[in-house]
Amino acid sequence: MIFVYLKNKLCNNFVYILFIVFFFGIMSGLPFLLILSTLNMWLLEIGLNKTQMGLFALSTIPYSIKFFFGPYIDYVKIPLLSAFFGQRKSWLLLSQFLLIISIITLALSDPYNNFFYSILCAFLVGLFSAIQDVVIEVYRIELLKIYNIELGLGSTIFVLGYRTGMLISGSGALYFSFYYNSWIITYFIMAGFIFFGILITLISNDPVKNYNNSSNILYTFKFLFSYFIKLQDIKIIMLFIIFFKIGDTLLNAMSMSFLIELGFSKLEIIYIVKTFGICLMILGGVIGGFFLIKKKIWYLLLICCILQIFTSFLFLLQSIIGYNVVFLFYVVAIENFASGMSQVALVTYFSYLCCKEYTTIYYAFLSSFSSFVRINLSFFGGIFADFVIWDVFYLIICFICFPSVLILFMFKRHFFNLLKN
Length: 421
What we know:
Elements: H1 2-10, H2 14-34, H3 37-45, H4 50-55, H5 70-75, H6 81-85, H7 87-107, H8 115-146, H9 151-180, H10 183-202, H11 217-230, H12 234-262, H13 266-294, H14 297-321, H15 325-353, H16 359-387, H17 390-400, H18 402-410, H19 412-420
Helix pairs in contact: 2-8, 2-9, 2-10, 7-8, 7-10, 8-16, 9-10, 9-13, 9-15, 12-14, 12-16, 12-17, 12-18, 13-15, 14-15, 14-17, 14-18
């Protein structure tokens, strides 16, 4: 009864909608590190080798195939839940409930003695997290459009929540594991945060939309495939995503190995990279969002591309200077600020590209392709880093980032036409 009362009182409130978007961002960002850096720290402490730890990267595969979930989320109705809560909310509640169960299962899995079972549990966390992401992404876009809230502002609030979720599952999880000296308790606490997300979902309102029945799923896949093949700008979009993700992905993927080789301690990395860095990511996201209120998306994307090149150059200088905590603060500040701003820019760009009739599938496809690029860049970046010294590695990244700037200038009309469409 209290959830119905709060919904009726607040559902048309501007601040309430942004509040919902913010907490959706937290729920989207929180599970991500639980199967990446936080899980790697756990595996490192129990004595697993790098090859074994690398196999856990399979748990992120669902993030790169999210577009397959889109039609089902659009058309398939969940018995009882869909009739009572609506299409979007029912899928969101189900994915969050299963996410809680999978996180608890992972916490109890004992990776050292039940290695492959733990990989399966981590994969399930990634799967239900990816499904939750798809629902949240389209939920956010539809809410913002229904209530006429600027997509740039909405993307900023969402990214702010996303980074807060990463702060909770990154630095927060490390703190809980240190305080309680137990990874099981830590993951149970993380599952508790997702349960709080269910309460937020209950007071949100399902976007109003006429959904078709499940018989249209196959048609939707065929239609969208043919549409993407024929779409003139799809080559521009995919090329830009690839080159835009190169700098941010390679810098993030290789930063831990790089800093450890330079002699930075784990404590320094936790405080400087995980805590200070995430705060700068949040700041970058906020400033990026406010920038979008005044300027068009093209200008923010250009600034982000230039910052990526500059950040790569700073990492190159760090590799030459070596161990220097003060200089690391500057590098981490600018790199994370640029990363936070880049995520706002990319989320807003994807939001503008979505067509009204197939918002779920469009956004899921773009997001999945972005994740696919990230996963492959991380994999091949690691192999490449083994064959060259760090100076050469970061110098090459500087040059690889330049095509994204060229694409922005060569196809400027595409980016300016987004607002018109």
